[in-house]
């Protein structure tokens, strides 16, 4: 048996838990957990890919909160739409609707570069954007790690959708906070931000 948790990131405070028997049951537990939370305008809910469900998005929007959700293979059409759209806008740099922010840090024998590339023209996604209530921005974050001792490098790409405005620096900040707790929890509230 596992637990799905709601965690208030900035205060390091657990707001609630729901028991789940399997990964599949998290899709049922997350809405129950969100129902128990008193959310307000300005709250940002981050959830890993299992929670990227249309009903969960609608529930968050109904509570007047914002969302930032990971997109993986459990939403293959959405993921492919983001891949195609981001390739189509690749040639645009810092225009009105395509933005990018990068940061680099060094420590523990690693050099890590994170780049968040965003697009706020949801029409690039095709008709699928209409299925995701409140979507304002989509994109990806690339994490590029270089192991200085071994000389090896690795890149991971994380796709996302969000109801937040097109601000890649802010989006990257919220995703990093989510990743900081993701291994143990699945829902967080930031700024007040809630990760599920």
What do these coordinates show?
It is built from four helices and ten strands, in the order E-E-H-E-H-E-H-E-E-E-E-H-E-E. Strands 1, 2, 3, 4, 5, 6, 7, 8, 9 and 10 form a ten-stranded mixed β-sheet that branches. It is globular, with a radius of gyration of 17 Å. With 196 residues, the protein is an alpha+beta fold.
Short description:
With 196 residues, this protein is of the alpha+beta class. It is 24% helix and 38% strand.
Question: Mind sketching the topology for me?
Answer:
Elements: E1 2-8, E2 13-20, H1 26-36, E3 44-47, H2 54-62, E4 66-71, H3 76-88, E5 98-107, E6 110-119, E7 137-147, E8 152-162, H4 168-182, E9 187-190, E10 193-195
Parallel strand pairs: 3-4, 3-10
Antiparallel strand pairs: 1-2, 1-10, 4-8, 5-6, 6-7, 7-8, 9-10
Helix pairs in contact: 1-2
Number of helices: 4
From the helix content, strand content and strand pairing, which structural class follows? alpha+beta
Q: What's the total number of strands?
A: 10
- Please tell me what the overall shape is: globular
Question: Using only CA atoms, what is the Rg?
Answer: 17 Å
Which spans of ≥5 residues are poorly predicted at pLDDT below 50? 183-187
How many domains comprise the coordinates? 1
Distance between the termini: 17 Å
Mean pLDDT: 85
Percentage of residues in strands:
35-45%
User: Main sheet, how many strands, which sense, barrel?
Assistant: 10 strands, mixed
